[in-house]
Amino acid sequence: MERYQRQLILKGFGLEAQERLAQAKVLVIGAGGLGCPALQYLVAAGVGCVGIADHDVVELSNLQRQVLYTSADVGTLKVENAAKRLQQMNPEVKLLLYPVAVDKENILETISSYDVIFDGTDNFESRYLINDACTMLNKPLVFAAVSGFEGQLAVFNVEDELGIKTNYRDLFPVPPDAGEIPNCAENGILGVIPGIIGTMAAGEIIKLITGIGNPLINKLLHYNLLTQEQYEMNITPSNEYEPPISSAGFMNSDPENLTHSFTEIDAAQMNELRKNPSTIIIDVRERHEFPKLDSGIYQQVPISVFETFASAEIDAKNIVLICQHGIRSVAAAELLHQKYGETKKIYSLKGGISKWRSHFNHTT
């Protein structure tokens, strides 16, 4: 009672709401900039069981916004570090860890036992996959996204007072092409933005569980830090969307099942290809991005001018595209395949430089 006393005395909250929290199970997918603040406030509020799904390790560049981690955690699993600190914060909460990438093979089993799902991921493939799974299993989904100085928040798959419910595909029916929309690693993010939006997401989850207030059901909230302006946009169901009836329906959401016109490789395969004199490795990051690579090994052609570059003939038989996270390199690989077809071998480094950093010879 003492731990939750400040919220127990709130008019309209009380013991009944606290008991609902204690009985609830919430799954947070993505223990990054959005997941960290959401996890902290869900655990502090006394949600009975919290699942944490994330396969990534802590990187130094995470620490500017992912406030559950410290410099000593770099190189170790996010879920393990998050759980350690969350358990210290509130040992009464049960924590379940999923240190794996959520994909079409495990998504249904992973979310099936939870009452509310929070999508704090940073890529479109995961967002569509999580959305489709929640729609299929009728799970309430709290969605959040951030970029630059702005953030978005919505509640999907929950009926409003008219019995209407919407999902992510009603808002964005068609996934963008690879590399079409930059993520935070490419576009940048002010650290407090995911803190604000992630905390607001925790608030929406608490509202859904306890029944207080008016959650953002069938609404998208847009927030701008620079002006402190926010507005809500109503979402209506799309007649084009048909929820999947089995995991096979996730085919269009899971990048592992897309038929690519190029080959995704790891760093070891890239280094083998490097030994072939007819191989060129092209870094498609912008010139201001770090780390800088050895220009004697890697040719830099920013994605912003890549189409012009690709109009000229490339003599090499093997073309390897690399970028920070393996997103823009996919777009560049598709562009080259349109020109060369099967006459050249085109590769993209999966996961990018950030995943295989130790394999590169940096100049800075």
UniProtKB/TrEMBL annotation:
SUPFAM superfamilies with a match to the protein in the record: Activating enzymes of the ubiquitin-like proteins (SSF69572), Rhodanese/Cell cycle control phosphatase (SSF52821)
Pfam family, one: Rhodanese
Stretches that traverse the bilayer: none
Segments forming domain Rhodanese: 317-361
InterPro entries (alphabetical): Rhodanese-like_dom, Rhodanese-like_dom_sf, ThiF/MoeB/HesA, ThiF_NAD_FAD-bd, Ubiquitin-activating_enz
Highest taxon, organism lineage: Bacteria
Protein's UniProt name: HesA/MoeB/ThiF family protein
Species, as recorded: Pedobacter rhodius
